[in-house]
Specification:
It is globular, with a radius of gyration of 22 Å. It has 11 helices and 24 strands. The two termini are 18 Å apart. By secondary structure, it is of the alpha/beta class. The structure holds alpha-L-arabinofuranose.
Amino acid sequence: MSDLDRRLFGTFVEHMGRCVYTGIFEPGHPSADERGFRRDVMELTRELGPTIIRYPGGNFLSGYNWEDGVGPKSQRPRRLDLAWYSTETNQFGTNEFMEWSRAVGVEPMFGVNLGTRGPDEARRFIEYCNHPSGTQLSDLRRLHGHEKPHDIKFWCIGNEMDGPWQICRKTAEEYGRAALETAKVMRSVDPTIQLAACGSSTHDMPTYGVWEDAVLEHCFDQVDFISLHTYFENKLDSTEEFLANSEVMDLFIKEIVAVADSVAARKHSAKRIMLSFDEWNVWYKARSIDDLRKPGWPEAPRLIEEVYNFEDALLNGGALITMMNNADRVKTACIAQLVNVIGPIMTEPGGPAWRQTIFHPFAHATRFAHGRVLRPVIESPSYTAKTHPEVPYLAASVVDDESTGQTVVFALNRHLSEEMEIRIELRGLGQDRRLVESLELHHANLKATNTKDAPNTVSPRTNPDVRIDGETLVARLKPGSWNVIVSAAGERR
Ligand code: AHR
């Protein structure tokens, strides 16, 4: 049993493709407010319910000058963005993002550039953002219209610094040293912050594990988190293999916990480094070179606009279950990204915004998962996948909220042809339990998608096949389905 840190349900806004421009920010759009923020996207973001949002990148971060994005807009430079071969207009920057995140009620998670820059830029940036007043940089923020400090609590020290694609990639030694010194100066400016060091950019990297060990060897005492990133692919075009990815994610988490704890052991330290799974999602359909860059340094090109299908939503549900079941160590996580760029929300410039299939399991988790995660004992038949020897057909997580008496079961039936009857013993969770709500996400076609013209093809419905029988909850889950069952105690024991 462990407390669920609600920052597990974060998302990510990068200056990439149309995530910022024509995603969250589109002056002139019929729904835009006076700041150019699309109200339709703000509404969908509130419904999605993320708790924390990572910004401004991603790979973009490693070439970004934060100074370019503050102050009078007419004076902001246009720059080549070498991460995505685009032109960055800088019409949206730190202060706009802070206003936007406040408007949608989400905590910011910022990154500092450890590619082209380093500790000096980081200390200046945090002084601009978090120092109250009386210094050149804090007063510059005030001059820019933000009297009060932004008080940004969570900071990522760089992004994917092990990746050959990264602007100014570093070795683990170089990065570990730089992360240590960056963390020290940032904490000197604001001792209340939390800091995340970069882990491997995927668990397939040749230096996986060794990287985390070497990086933490240097900066263990100064950081709170190590990051994990994963993008699920349907490499074999097999749904069963694809859905096994959330079990591989579970191994990934446990391996990084083991590496972090072995560094702690070597240092004779009782400190535990927590995990920030700050990029995760399905991404494989829109991953060709043509999806990643367009010729001619365009502004806000259509990059990696993955159209999600129903099986992608199932896997994302499985990933959420995995992360909730590891809530003792995974304290923050970000589905990447929020809008258009591998996003749960899609928009058309000048047109509508709609929910992709993957929107739904995430919105269920943010809406219903409050309290503490119970350790479920699950008995389920399983299958063997190429990437994992034992994949239970049933994946489930149980979250209990003592303050409301509600207990929520998130359940994924990975069996693609058979219904599953689940029986859940609720003993010890209070008497006279009643069913509050029972939702399912199911579609007969695993490849079904939501589009601009048919935005609700894959949408949650009530599952009538759920009942409470004494202290047992009994539910029939459709083959290939994501389910949320909410029950409440009449009276707590
Ligand atoms: O989310 C898209 C990109 O994937 C990010 O910029 C990078 O960090 C990762 O490789």
